[in-house]
TrEMBL record:
InterPro entries hit by this protein: AB_hydrolase_1, AB_hydrolase_fold, AB_hydrolase_sf, PcaD/CatD
Protein's name according to its UniProt entry: 3-oxoadipate enol-lactonase
One MF term in the entry's GO annotations: 3-oxoadipate enol-lactonase activity
Annotated EC: 3.1.1.24
Keywords: Hydrolase
GO biological process: beta-ketoadipate pathway
Name of the coding gene: pcaD
GO-annotated cellular components: membrane
AB hydrolase-1 domain residues: 23-128
Length: 264
């Protein structure tokens, strides 16, 4: 584990270097999770790629700062981390809100980005009303009050079986995130809309979605991919909103294939 002061917070990050000249992949996790969601997938990629994971503000071991946040706040944190590590021309893989953060990073610091992988995300996620309702529920009754509803969107029914220890662990991950960090990032998602800028993305793009995603369904992700010139769109069967947990081999294979095409 490594830590650094970026902007007004401490960022927890981990970098696994594969050697000079290897492509760098930056993974940005979803709302209510931390960087451990990628750990099933990293062994399938770390030999050939330098891997950077981190906890965004308000999540995991990173600082809270001053919620509520904007997506620009999250994007500036990532830009600061990349500058600190002297990394540029990276491949950014953002899951859910991580995809919004990736879009913000590209819009403000395109010099840092070689390609974009958008997993289970879109140009705009949800409505102002739906996010306001979630923020109210969490602030009044805690994250546990929305646990079941969120898990139905995150994971398929077979994964949500009570005897699945991994499922119970991801429930724990969600409810143990700081409430103010969670609700503060809900506000950031509520206010983010990249509809107008998606068509201006001029680097290679891969859009991925789980077939059973209840948060950013395939039709939403497809509409996002259609906005981006030349974007590739892929569906992972047997997965919902967090395919890096439910289908890490398939998710990693799509990422690897996409990067190999970049290098041809």
């Amino acid at each position: 584990m490594q830590f650094v002061h970026i902007n007004d917070i401490v960022i927890h990050y981990d970098i696994q270097r594969a050697g000079d000249g290897k492509p760098v992949i930056v993974f940005i996790n979803s709302l209510g999770t931390d960087s451990r969601i990628w750990h099933h997938e990293l062994p399938k990629l770390a030999e050939d790629y330098t891997i950077l994971t981190y906890d965004k503000r308000g999540h995991g071991l990173s600082g809270l700062g001053s919620p509520p946040y904007s997506i620009a706040d999250h994007g500036a944190d990532l830009a600061g981390l990349l500058d600190h590590l002297q990394l540029s021309q990276v491949i950014v893989c953002g899951l859910s809100v991580g995809g919004l953060i990736a879009q913000s990073l590209y819009a403000t610091r395109p010099d840092l980005v070689k390609a974009l992988i958008f997993s289970n995300t879109a140009h705009k996620i949800g409505t102002a009303e739906s996010w306001a309702a979630r923020i109210t529920a969490v602030e009044q009754n805690g994250i546990g009050s929305i646990l079941d509803a969120i898990m139905e969107r995150w994971f398929t029914a077979p994964f949500r079986k009570p005897d699945n220890a991994a499922y119970q662990a991801y429930c724990n991950m969600l409810v143990r995130q700081p409430t103010s960090g969670y609700s503060g990032t809900c506000a950031a998602i509520r206010d983010a809309d990249f509809t107008e800028t998606a068509s201006k993305i001029a680097v290679p793009v891969l859009c991925i979605v789980g077939r059973e995603d209840g948060s950013t369904p395939p039709e939403l992700v497809k509409s996002f991919a259609d906005l981006i010139p030349g974007a590739r769109y892929e569906i992972i069967e047997g997965a919902a909103h967090i395919p890096c947990v439910e289908a890490p081999a398939a998710h990693a294979a799509l990422i690897r294939g996409f990067i190999e095409q970049l290098e041809e």
